[in-house]
């Protein structure tokens, strides 16, 4: 994670237009500035560079500390703060007319609006703006069908009713999907979608050279970057490391991030006898971040579910091979045996097998995988992804003068 993002220097493709973006992603206000987690700021700034003005309607709550969050710069984007409770779907449904009125106020004058799914506040934006003829384009970051509640009280959950509603909205509006497999899953109409991967970085940040395998006799060094929450399932990797250690394969792991599972996973690593696992807490991008990623031989992503995780493109940027679970849009970036390894979420056995495969690589194979990621990195810069998205919107006529 980084303290801030910069606006990419590009030639705007829609310099006379105003863009609106709606998401339920929670932002934090501190000293009149806005911060959040993950890669959404780079997505917002990348698109904003092509428009005259951009309005970002998001839930906002005050915060005392923001040292581990990404800052949205003043100027390029005007934040329209929604109440913090609009982060929660049930609260949005309970105050549906109020939320729709606030969104119409926030996005008045926008030439085109981008509701990001899956978030109930984004569904409210679609409901509020579509009858007025405001052009919309959606962003779908992952497969959310598995979120449908089960059990006898499932009908009381907003998610139970929202998922088919989301599916209909996806079919009725142009959608950028994080992985073409999602278009098939949601039966999107031909010509009604385009694949993308919205987590990005600046083009000038690509590593100048590939990384190399560890010196003989030294353990392969892995790095994990992310929030330490239950859904990240880091314990799967720890157990796999313990399994391969029984056969004499030793790995080192640097964990950058914090969260509610940190203490439990630190205890687990000790109970498993893993001597080379270090939990560093939150490490902002800077000298220490560069040192730890520079020492790594591969990056690991252990999540049970993701959309388009920024950590994957961070690995490309650093020319690191990637060992990831097969989640979200990751398989559209990481190809088995070409620039990394893919395993099923929660599978200790598959993680252990991938670690063994990693240890069996020759030095030449290792550098080849790393070089493949360094070459691929240019495709996932802020400048490239945002330009392609706006070009698609123009080609679809969504930014034409007469569309509204």
What this model shows, in words?
There is one protein chain. With 404 residues, this protein is an alpha/beta fold. It has two domains: 14-201 and 381-395, Glycogen Phosphorylase B (Rossmann fold); 204-378, Rossmann fold. 34% of the residues lie in helices and 21% in strands. It is built from 13 helices and 16 strands. Strands 1, 2, 3, 4, 5, 6, 7, 8, 9 and 10 form a ten-stranded mixed β-sheet that branches. It has a six-stranded parallel β-sheet with strand order 13-12-11-14-15-16, sandwiched between helices. α8 (262-271) links the parallel β12 (251-256) and β13. α1 (40-48) packs across α13 and α3 (96-106) crosses α4. It is globular and about 65 Å long. It starts with 13 loop residues before the first strand and ends in a 9-residue tail after the last helix. The mean pLDDT is 87.
């Amino acid at each position: 994670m980084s303290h801030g993002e910069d606006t990419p220097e590009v030639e705007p493709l829609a310099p006379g237009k105003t863009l609106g973006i709606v998401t339920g992603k929670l932002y934090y206000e501190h000293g009149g500035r806005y911060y959040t987690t993950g890669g959404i700021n780079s997505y917002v700034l990348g698109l904003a560079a092509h428009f005259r003005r951009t309005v970002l309607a998001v839930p906002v709550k005050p915060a005392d500390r923001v040292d581990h969050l990404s800052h949205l710069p003043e100027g390029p984007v005007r934040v329209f703060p929604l109440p913090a409770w609009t982060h929660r779907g049930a609260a949005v449904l309970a105050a549906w007319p109020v939320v729709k009125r606030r969104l119409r106020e926030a996005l008045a004058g926008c030439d085109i609006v981008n509701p990001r799914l899956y978030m109930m506040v984004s569904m409210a934006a679609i409901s509020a703006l579509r009858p007025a003829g405001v052009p919309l384009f959606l962003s779908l970051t992952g497969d959310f069908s598995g979120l449908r509640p089960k059990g006898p009280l499932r009908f009381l959950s907003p998610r139970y009713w929202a998922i088919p509603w989301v599916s209909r909205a996806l079919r009725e509006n142009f959608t950028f999907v994080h992985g073409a497999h999602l278009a098939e899953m949601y039966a999107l109409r031909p010509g009604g979608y385009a694949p993308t991967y919205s987590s990005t970085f600046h083009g000038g940040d690509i590593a100048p050279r590939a990384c190399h395998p560890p010196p003989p006799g030294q353990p392969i060094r892995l790095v994990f970057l992310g929030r330490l929450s239950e859904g990240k399932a880091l314990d799967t990797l720890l157990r796999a490391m313990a399994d391969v250690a029984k056969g004499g394969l030793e790995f080192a792991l640097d964990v950058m991030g914090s969260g509610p599972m940190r203490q439990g996973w630190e205890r687990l690593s000790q109970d498993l006898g893993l001597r080379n696992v270090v939990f560093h807490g939150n490490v902002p991008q800077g000298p220490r971040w560069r040192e730890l990623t520079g020492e790594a031989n591969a990056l690991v992503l252990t999540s049970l579910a993701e959309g388009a995780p920024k950590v994957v493109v961070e690995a490309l940027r650093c020319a690191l091979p990637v060992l990831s679970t097969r989640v979200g849009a990751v398989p559209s970036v990481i190809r088995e045996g070409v620039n990394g390894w893919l395993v099923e979420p929660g599978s200790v056995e598959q993680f252990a097998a991938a670690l063994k495969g990693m240890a069996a690589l020759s030095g030449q194979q290792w550098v080849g995988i790393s070089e493949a990621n360094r070459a691929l990195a240019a495709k996932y810069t802020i400048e490239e992804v945002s330009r392609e998205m706006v070009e698609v919107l123009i080609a679809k006529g969504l930014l034409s003068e007469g569309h509204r």
